[in-house]
Structures are given as C-alpha cells and as structure tokens.
Amino acid sequence: GAGVSQTPSNKVTEKGKYVELRCDPISGHTALYWYRQSLGQGPEFLIYFQGTGAADDSGLPNDRFFAVRPEGSVSTLKIQRTERGDSAVYLCASSLTLDTPNTGELFFGEGSRLTVL
Amino acid sequence: GESVGLHLPTLSVQEGDNSIINCAYSNSASDYFIWYKQESGKGPQFIIDIRSNMDKRQGQRVTVLLNKTVKHLSLQIAATQPGDSAVYFCALAGGTSYGKLTFGQGTILTVHP
Q1: From CA A20, how far away is CA A49, in angstroms rounded?
Q2: With contact defined as beta carbons under 8 Å apart, do B71 and B28 qualify?
Q3: Which of A99, A116, B90, B91 is least crowded, fewest Cβ atoms below 10 Å from its Cβ?
Q4: Can you tell me the distance from the alpha carbon of A1 to that of A65, in angstroms, rounded to the nearest whole number?
Q5: Percentage of chain B with pLDDT > 90?
Q6: φ/ψ of residue B73, rounded to 5
Q7: pLDDT tens digit string along A14-72?
Q8: Contact check, Cβ <8 Å, B96/A55
Q9: B23/B5: higher pLDDT
Q10: How far is B48 from chain A (nearest CA, A)?
Q11: What is the pLDDT of residues B19-74, one digit of tens each?
Q12: Is A110 exposed, middle or buried (0-12, 13-18, 19+ CB in 10 A)?
C-alpha cells in the first residue's frame, strides 16, 4: 500500500488478556518504530527495528510488552496480561533509513486504539 | 532526562491570521527538531524540521525558528486556514536514530472561518 497500515484500528479487551497489534510499513522502508500515545499526550517511543533486529527497545514499559519483525517488513507488538493502564493508541511508523533527516523522516500509520476494560 | 513542553495548550485564530505555536525543550544535545501535525483519528504528519546548526527554516506557509540560547522552538503558520486545525507537536531527535523522537505535549490549533 501507499502508507503505513495498522490493524486492528480498534481493539477492546479485558484486563489480563493477550493482544497483538500489527503494522505493515511502507514497502522498502528498513526502519520501523512503535510509539504509544495516551489521551491528550504526545507519542512516546517504545521500540524501533532496523531490518529484523530490535535496535533499541528502551521505551518498552515492562516485560509484558514485546515486538517482533521476523522478515524485516511486517511487525507485531504483543502485550501480555493487559492492564487498564495499557489503554492508548499504539502508533507505528516507518522510515527509509535511520541515518539522515531526509531519509529518516517518519511516516506514521493511523494507529491501533487499545481499550482494556 | 529529556523533556519537551509547550507554553500554550490551545490556540484559536481567525482564518487568514498568522499563528505561532511555541515549544520549550531541555535537552541541549538534540540536533534535530521537527514539527508534526495530527488530525483527529490520524497519525502525526511531518510538517517541517530544522537542524541545530540553523536558526530559521521556511517551508510553504510555515516557518520554524530555533533559539538554542533559551532552548525554544516555534512554528509560524502564515494565512492560517480551517484545514490547519489540528494538534501540533514539536519533537526532538538525536542519537542513534532520527526516528527515535521525544514529543512535546501538543497545542490544539482551532481556526475559525
């Protein structure tokens, strides 16, 4: 597709359940990022990938959160034992490379809104 | 750690006026500053960026000013239009990836016809 695609757009789950959020980046983009945006706040960095490997996961809040990108394209953010505080919009972004402002510009998807009841 | 803040959470202007959105930051090591626009239900959209070795950069109807002495960033929108209504975020980058950003809280811009 032309842009970053995220599914599902909305996910409602119960406390304690497991969820997966999917991101399909722009074709050819080597870098992929996950951010989390709470209501009324700016996005917060979670993790980014260069190719298949997680280059920096310092933003993941705890070990309930995990992300993979096994083939260097699609990525899945996985949240175990969800808590009400996990409710937020999870944004995915991709960029052509990591390195320079011109090629490192981020293109965001529309996000997956997660609600934990 | 890094922090980014905004002076005004909301800004209302009339169509055709110029708008100025401000951002204060604390991390003097940042070398790349970016403004994003976010419409309701959508992801942030890149507007304009500026490197730390510059103090002004212009785009189409937008200008970003950087004052490193007081750690202040601003976005000026000329001839504001109703389509400019959105939340505007400043963001800082620096380090291993230009995509690892620290975002400010955001300013809500409302443009009245």
Answers
A1: 17
A2: yes
A3: A99
A4: 27
A5: 75
A6: -130, 140
A7: 999 999 999 999 999 999 999 999 988 999 999 999 989 998 999 999 999 999 999 99
A8: yes
A9: B23
A10: 10
A11: 999 999 887 788 889 999 999 999 999 999 999 999 999 999 999 999 999 999 99
A12: middle
Cα A11-A15-A16 angle, rounded to 5 deg: 110
| Rounded CA separation A45/A82 (Å) | 19
Is B91 near chain A, with CB under 8 Å? yes
φ, ψ at A97 (rounded to 5°): -140, 180
The answer to whether A61 touches A44, Cβ cutoff 8 Å, is: no
Contact B109, B8 (CB under 8 A): no
For tokens 């965001």, name the residue.
A108
Place of tokens 């976010």: B38
Which residues from A are below 8 Å from B when comparing CB atoms? Answer: 4, 31, 33, 40-45, 48, 50, 55-56, 91, 93, 95, 98-101, 104-111
Amino acid letter, A42:
G
Rounded to an integer, what distance in angstroms lies between the CA atom of residue A56 and that of residue B33?
20
φ/ψ of residue B6, rounded to 5: -120, 145
Judged on CB neighbours under 10 Å (0-12, 13-18, 19+), B52 is: middle
What gap in Å lies between CA B75 and CA B21, rounded to an integer? 5
Q: Compute the nearest-CA separation of A68 from chain B (Å).
A: 17
Residue from A48, A47, A96, A43 nearest B102 by CA: A43
